[in-house]
Amino acid sequence: MPRRAARDPAVEPERPEPVTGSSEPVDENPQVPLDGIGVVGITRRRVAWLLAAIVATWIVIVFARQVGEAQAASARADAIGARNAALETDVAALQGELQTIQKPAFVEQQAAANGLGRPNERPFRLAPGAAPVPAGAPGSTEVRLGGRDDTPTPLESWLELLFGSGSAS
């Protein structure tokens, strides 16, 4: 697109002098064609580059949004998979519990606990205000379930008496 040479502002175009008695009005400010003058440096090429940059930015934003949505969907799918695995574990545990409570031995035990046992059985219950069993008492859960027994053997007692405690303090 060829540019026209800039006009010298010092040289003013000649204006025709108004003719007196003429019926035509004379335009004192004639229109100058602005085709060759770039308005504030904006040319068609720069406008095309600007539009191309805007379209490219828009495409990048759209793809970024799609990637973000895909990652969110993937995270939701992983969470649903983990929840399904937990539910499968719960279902398996509940099925095992169902098999346990359907056994005749469990039903008899629960019946005896509610006073519905055999005629010659005596139901055993603690009094409502009974104190808990001490930790080392015979029959306590600590002793029955394999709790640690820290009482020293007689040999350990003699060795500790003769040589002192084995721990270096």
Descriptive account of the structure:
This protein has 169 residues and is mostly helical. Helices cover 49% and strands 0% of the residues. The protein is built from four helices and no strands. It has helices at 44-101, 104-113, 141-144, 154-163. The chain is elongated, with a radius of gyration of 50 Å. The two termini are 97 Å apart. The model has no long low-confidence stretch (mean pLDDT 79).
Question: What's the layout of helices and strands?
Answer:
Layout: H1 44-101, H2 104-113, H3 141-144, H4 154-163
Features:
169 residues; 4 helices; elongated; mainly alpha; 49% helix
Concise account of the structure shown:
The chain is mainly alpha-helical and 169 residues long. 49% of the residues lie in helices and 0% in strands.
Largest sheet: none
Report mean pLDDT, rounded to a whole number. Answer: 79
Report the span from N to C terminus. Answer: 97 Å
What fraction, in percent, of the residue positions are helical?
40-55%
Helix count equals 4
Secondary-structure class:
mainly alpha
Shape: elongated
Number of DSSP E strands: 0
Low-confidence stretches: none
Note the beta-strand portion: under 5%
What is the H-and-E element order? Answer: HHHH
Which value, in Å, is the CA radius of gyration? Answer: 50 Å
Name the assembly state. single chain
